[in-house]
Predict the 3D structure of the following.
Amino acid sequence: MDYFLQLFSTGIIIGGLYAMIALGFVLIFKATGVLNFAQGPMVVMGAFIAWTSVALWKIPFFLAILLTFLLVVIFAFLVERIVLRPLIGRSIIATIMLTLGLYYILEGGIHILWGSDVRIFPTVFPKITLFLGPVIIPTTHFWGFVGGILSVIFFALFFRFSRIGIAMRAVAENQQAAMSMGVSVKKIIRISWAISAIVAAVGGVLFANISGLSPRMSEIGLMMFPVVILGGLDSVPGAIVGAFLIGIIENMAGGTSIHLLAGGPKMFYLLLY
């Protein structure tokens, strides 16, 4: 039982990180109707920029995070302006194929710039290990969960109460009506891409602290697609719920499979009865 409680708690922690990254998908889709399959490489790129700033350039962590935000926002603006804006009004298949192509281009660029080795992210968070009965929550998992949940809460409040958040919701609901009320749709779309890039960078840093940093982390973006489908492509609460469900199910299924293989027929018998 203790083993499965540990799996369940780890699934909740991973689900919190998934929820934050899934927000990037939902933000772009709500504002533009575009399924951004390139979100995964943006997660990795933000993490590698932060790693380079801290590990190689020796910039203090919080300044490195601010620099990372600045660079990923500039990149997001360029992608939106140069790559995606010319496709406004085109078929959904065209935009999907373009973002898939962008996925592989960015992944290749990350391999060229940083190689394919797994990097260990420098220790930047205080060491805190929680013991909740039989459940152990390591430092990296604790801060990953805290960062993910705080980000989700922040953006939920941002969409609910801020002027820009309300404008983003209006554009997502009806662009023509939003324009008639004086909302600049192009500006809101740019802001959506910028926020999505920041969310991706934060998620990348938190994931890198847990599992190490490598270009293969870009697969997280593709893993988020079933999350947002499960929760609803244009639903922030649905994406959050879907992310937690996927995190828990994925962790429980993987851990149970390993446990069954280790325990053999006896373990399988006990699970059945």
In short: The chain has one domain: 2-272. DSSP finds ten helices and two strands in the chain.
